[in-house]
Amino acid sequence: MARQPIRPGGRRGRIWPGSLRRRLVVAFVLVATVSAGALAVASYLLVREARLDGSLTASAAEAREDLNLAATITYQAAGDFVRAYEQRGTHAVLIFPGGRKVTSDDQVNPPIPAVLQGFVRRGQLGYQRMDVAGLPYLVMAGKVPGSNAQLYLFFPEQSIQRNLAQLRNTLAAAWLGVLLVAALVGRVLARRTLGPVARASEAARQIAAGRLDTRLPAGAADEFGAWAAAFNEMADALEAKIAALSAAQARELRFTANVAHELRTPLTALVAEASLLSGQVSHLPDPARRPVELVIADVRRLRTLVDELMEISRLDAGSEPVLQRLVDVQAVVAALISARGWQDRVTVDGGPLTLTTDPRRVERILANLVGNAVEHSGRDVVVRTGSDGANGCIDVADAGPGIPPEHLPHVFERFYKADSARAGAGSGLGLAIALENARLLGGTISVSSDVERGSVFRLTLPLGPGGDVSER
Amino acid sequence: MDERLLLVEDDASIREIVAIGLKAAGFRVATAVDGREGLARFRADGFDAVILDVMLPSLDGYEVCREIRKFSRVPIVMLTARTDLIDVVVGLESGADDYVKKPFELPELVARLRAVLRRAAAPAGAEPIVAGQLEIDPAGFAVRKDGIELALTATEFRLLLELARRPGQVFTRELLLQRVWDYEYLGDTHLVDVAIGRLRAKVEDDPSHPAVIKTIRGVGYRLDRA
Hints:
- By secondary structure, chain A is α+β, with helices and mostly antiparallel strands.
- Chain A has 9 helices and 12 strands.
- The A-B interface holds A 261, 264-273, 275-276, 279, 303, 306, 310, 314, 319-321, 323-326, 332, 335, 339, 356, 359-360, 363, 466 and B 11, 13-14, 17-18, 20-21, 24, 81-85, 102-107, 173-174, 184-186, 188-189, 218-219.
């Protein structure tokens, strides 16, 4: 009976918005910082190597020269010789054969590494890096030519270490900077890159909401441009298809309206002719009487059909005006019963019911429902008025044969007839018209049926402002 | 009886059978096949009532109605095949007193005709009524506003008279339909609304802010004495 409303798609499958964007940013930052970090570490190591090598080369050249100088120095002059080094910040230690040791700075008295001493004894120029009193030194050592004395020179390397530390700090700061810039650039890039995705989702939602003319900005030369073009093609196709379908539907509705309309002129003549004939039936000769009676009945049937076709095509066109009046439902029912002479077939039950609605439409609906009940049941039709607080309910119950369950969902369909053997009865549009009218008034009609006991059609209408169940 | 009717209808079958039916009901009937001929015949002979099809060649029913209204308050019933509300309203606004939807049973048309003719007949023996600036003279079928006579159609006159007989009372549209148009049960209340609109255009100082005929929302209309 009632069409299922189309529900918008659920939110189950929805991707958390921005998670892709965040992942893109994280990946971008990772790549940028790892490569920047590797670069910084590598360049630091290279610079350190170069600086230390340079220091070593310079120190070795100086040591060689100093060794030659030391060859002329006697034990007695050694004190002055080594002390001269202190002016350059270099400690010097001369060890004469027999272990006599002359030191440039007795307070510091730098220790002589044993490994280096072994080197020197074998006559080689050796070096070692070590800390003396907490400061870094490059120790160069060699045998003084022409004697067994050994010269140990402690070249300070604080400046190199300081420079290297500075470099380290600078590189670390630069790396941090890269990280920040990468995060920023990554965000912007990700937003730019994923912008089309967000726009496409929005466009798809718009289309789903019925705005079929929604399109994506096309023209970008990248993959998103191609995607947007494909999306727009899809939207074009969808729009064209739906336009064609609505045009076809509109044509069909117009055709029905036109057919009904064109039938009106000859039907008007027919109705008037039948109307005149019906006053003459008794004067007709016997063989003509029955055919004339049939003609009159069929003209009436045709008239009902055309009227109802017109009515339903007007309802389909959706241009029907709706009045808002205070309507005493029981009075409407009583009037339609007496107008149709159904007093001995239909009884009214329930309390007074006043609605604010369109009286003619209510009358139309109830006439159809009651007429339908009378047609199927013959008598014992009960119209019962009531309310559930917000809505007025009017039940039309018959004691007819009832509607089999397989037919029940279809009784409001146009031209649907549960009992095809009794095709002569109504036009097949009465219940469809009643339901369309009920919907127009913001209400509905439901039906329940018991094959043994008959059917109940329930019209539910909003009470409306001023509507009341107790009194008028 | 013996009223003279003019039937303007372009479809030959309808014209012929309706004429036969109306004659059988006791009217004298003249026919015209289009709007121009109808208007010419009415100008030439004058009739007691006019039955006017809406869809007519040369000059449509609304036009004919408007032309006739320029010089006559003869009762006019429209035959409308179009049941769109707007067509009905246009017909009534052009001055028709009532309308019958095609297709119709002949007795229905006859009943509508009798009703409009009854309205056009002067109400018997009623005293003049004064309501504010308006002076309504039922016997003379005349309404004067500040002494100047207003040109009301028979329906407008009956409507005003009905309201003026009980000033201050609210009339539902349904009651007015019964009393003025002789509808037995739910007719088209647009008849009432359109006629009230036309009546206001003639009797109110400012029809968009009516002071004489008030609308009571959701119920109906009321005539205020002052």
